[in-house]
Write a structure and sequence with these properties.
Mean pLDDT: 83
Largest sheet: 5 strands, antiparallel
CATH architecture of the largest domain: Orthogonal Bundle
Structural class: alpha+beta
Helix content: 40-55%
Strand order of the largest sheet: 3-2-1-4-5
CATH class of the largest domain: Mainly Alpha
Distance between the termini: 39 Å
Low-confidence stretches: 135-149
Number of helices: 9
Order of helices and strands: EEEHEEHHHHHHHH
Number of strands: 5
Amino acid sequence: MIASLRGTVVAIELGGAVIECGGVGYYFAATPQTLGELRRGEEAFVHITMTVREDAMNLYGFHDAEAKAMFSTLQGVSGLGPKLALAALAMYSASDLAGFISQGEVKQLQRIPGVGKRTAERMIVDLKDKVAVFAEEESVASVSVATPVAGGADIVEALVGLGFLEKNASAAVDSVLAEKPDNDRSSTLRDALKLLGRK
């Protein structure tokens, strides 16, 4: 199993990135926070979780071990797969998620796209004892990919991929770009996620 990657970043997309190690390019899905830490053409290290299914092998990358551990912990909930776990970590940090789960904050967890009341309640029941290991420290990702946003269609597409409705995603991206026209793509995606999380 692949547990980590160290190599040159050869591509950064809205939903993931490619790191070349020993002449092989590995694509992994990641949150905006992790992608914001990467720079094309520079060496990077990412923690990796690998999922193997009958029809696919997928890699998920994280800039810190805490996020990787939370990603695996979340999937201990019945019906909560990698896509939902990644969406949760795109919305909240590992320590925030741990706090919401341990305090029984159902409404906060329901803000994660694809998480309804029943799933949120199941997360609390199943994970309350398991999230105590997550420290209160919150890693703050400095997100800055120097690529200004033109139209934002690809950002809307990334939000839809995380489970948001297209009209809501489009409205959030338009709102962020109207307020911050010079935002880069990662910042716009992050700000749109914050806006959608309030609704």
